[in-house]
Amino acid sequence: MVSKTSLWIGTAALVAVPAFLLHAQKAAGVKTPLGLTTIIWPKDNAYSAAKADLGRLLYYDKRISGDGTLSCATCHDPKKGFTDQAPVSTGIRGQKGPISAPTVINRAYGLLQFWNGRAATLEAQAVGPMANPIEMGNTHANVVKTLRGIAGYRAKFKAVFGAEEFTLDHIAKAIATFERTVLSGDAPYDRYKAGNKAAMTPAQVRGMDVYFNKAKCDKCHEGPNFTLNAFHNLGIGQDKATPEEGRFAVTKDPSHFGQFKTPTLREIEHTFPYMHDGRLKTLEEVVEFYDKGGIKNKNLDEEMKPLKLTPAQKADLVAFMKALSGRGWQHLTEPKEFPQ
């Protein structure tokens, strides 16, 4: 059981703070782009370049799936903003999942993982899809057995963790370490805020005013990573024949029914389609959805109200969100060789 400290604001369920963050540490060696804060690393999974490199290999290695056809990068592809740019993901044997793959970008600043927050850490999230019959279709025991059977991996795990007989925990820590280096900052917005008033276009500057002052998007998408790390009910999924549980599936608190995690807006231009079920194809559709006040249901978030934006304000707001596309992740490409 992970010890947590719960936080709440209004009807939005904020994530419970995992205990590892209360005893975490800052690590040297990972330079964060302009606009981002220092990464806080778990005390039991400190950063090292060798561990991040090992995690990168594992992230792209299809041998961790049940039939050797899928890797983490299949659904979280760097070429697609670390998503698959699909409404729902395609897993082993062409099976379709029920939910859109969220981006890995800036998950170093996230707290609970998955859309409903069922994993307390990136480490816990990293191993979940491996044993999911719809996703990678493997077993944890077989993942460990397969990787232990590769001499090159045994050598790398020994160099990083001091043991050739590595465990699932070691695998999770390596992948999570790599994922915490997937960062996006130094966007036009960051450069504008740092004093370069030519970094954003006039439309983006106007859109920034709409974002913070008219639409007040920062009530949920706030801070350096443009998310409160909270869970909200927008009505998405509540209009289905069987309404989606969202956060309720984890907490069993009726007030959390239909709540899903608020994602970062960093790189939002590249992480389409939008919402947890991928129903909205464009940022323009997203703005229209919010302008109408979401989908009514008994747990609709109190902040979901019609915005009454003009067409010009809507266009400017979309332009501003595109000013949140930055740098820091584009160099993370697939390894040319894998351990043998």
Layout of helices and strands:
Blueprint lengths: L3 E2 L2 E2 L2 E3 L2 E2 H4 L2 E2 L13 E2 L7 H12 L11 H4 L46 H6 L12 H9 L2 H11 L6 H12 L8 H6 L8 H13 L15 E3 L15 H4 L8 E2 L21 H9 L19 H12 L18
List keywords for this structure.
mainly alpha; 12 helices; four-stranded antiparallel β-sheet; single chain; 8 strands; 340 residues; disordered N terminus; globular
Give your account of this protein's structure.
The protein is mostly helical and 340 residues long. It folds into two domains: 4-179, Cytochrome c-like domain (Cytochrome Bc1 Complex, Chain D, domain 2, Orthogonal Bundle), CATH 1.10.760; 188-322, Cytochrome Bc1 Complex, Chain D, domain 2, CATH 1.10.760. 30% of the residues lie in helices and 5% in strands. It contains twelve helices and eight strands. The protein has helices at residues 19-22, 49-60, 72-75, 122-127, 140-148, 151-161, 168-179, 188-193, 202-214, 248-251, 283-291, 311-322; strands at 4-5, 8-9, 12-14, 17-18, 25-26, 40-41, 230-232, 260-261. The strands form three sheets. A four-stranded antiparallel sheet has the order 2-3-7-8, with no helix packed on it. Strand 2 (8-9) and strand 3 form a beta hairpin. Helix 2 (49-60) crosses helix 7 and helix 11 (283-291) crosses helix 12. Mean pLDDT is 92; it is low at 1-11 and 19-25.
Assigned CATH class of the largest domain: Mainly Alpha
CATH topology assignment of the largest domain: Cytochrome Bc1 Complex, Chain D, domain 2
Which structural category do the helix and sheet elements fall into?
A: mainly alpha
What's the number of structural domains?
Answer: 2
In DSSP terms (H or I, runs of 4 or more residues), the helix count works out at: 12
Largest sheet: 4 strands, antiparallel
Unreliable residue runs = 1-11, 19-25
Query: What is the overall silhouette?
Result: globular
Strand coverage percent:
5-15%
Distance between the termini: 37 Å
CATH superfamily of the largest domain: Cytochrome c-like domain
Order of helices and strands: EEEEHEEHHHHHHHHEHEHH
Care to count the β-strands?
8
The radius of gyration computed from the alpha-carbon positions, rounded to a whole number of angstroms, is: 20 Å
Strand order in space, largest sheet: 2-3-7-8
- What is the arithmetic mean of pLDDT? 92
- CATH architecture group name of the largest domain: Orthogonal Bundle
Helicity range of the residues?
Answer: 25-40%
